[in-house]
Amino acid sequence: MPMFHFLNPAREGKGVEKDAPKKKRFFIFFELYFRKFFKFIQLNLLFLAYCIPIVTIGPAVAAMTVVAKKMMQDRHVFLLSDFFDAFKDNFKQSFFMGLIDLVVLFLCGTAITFYYHYDTQSMWIWVPFLLAVLTGILFLFINFYAFTMITTIRLKLRDIIKNALIFSVIGIKANLIIVLYMVLLGLFLLIMYTPISVLFGILNVFSTLCFVIVFNVYPVIDRYLIQPQLQGKAEQPEQPEDTVFLDRPSGSGK
Description:
The chain is mostly helical. Helix content is 69%, strand content 2%. Strands 1-2 form a two-stranded antiparallel sheet. It is globular. The chain starts with 24 loop residues before the first helix and ends in a 9-residue tail after the last strand.
């Protein structure tokens, strides 16, 4: 064995043992995130550059979702071309999904503000207030799945929203994990209110949240939608026979 062979970067590594235990998803998440940390900063800035309120916020979210999904699957990313292609290919559905989001956000926000400040002593006023809050939360959960499905499966928008509603219920564990990440990230930015934390928020917050969402919801979609279709099983939610998968690398989402 030549001297200093262990310093040779081209030498064969130890490799992965056949029966080696699989890593927990918790550790996989942080391994991928920190390995691609600067990619997430670039993705966040690209999202902000393309995100024109009302006009392109939906397509920008869809494009960011595609890139985050590739990072989650540990696939090579051509950041600019992948983002632009996804922005263009998913523009129509994601545009209308973005409009629906804005309408629901406006209605829920208006209702919550109105009923919270409504000047009355009646306890019944809390009923519509709570309904508005629950509607907002439910639609937040629907969004976790909608944009991932828009960029993964070719379906009509109404079918995507219907399935996203189903997933928002059966995927409650994933939803709560995402909310926990959001709360922890918010607390971090609030407690560590320094120029560094503000800079982190500007440079990384949207791409980080997108990665958290995709990492947790894609396995749910894969289990209940993609795999049943591939295996020919009649499992819910049912899909049309002409379902087309836009992005399904082998072994993804496992």
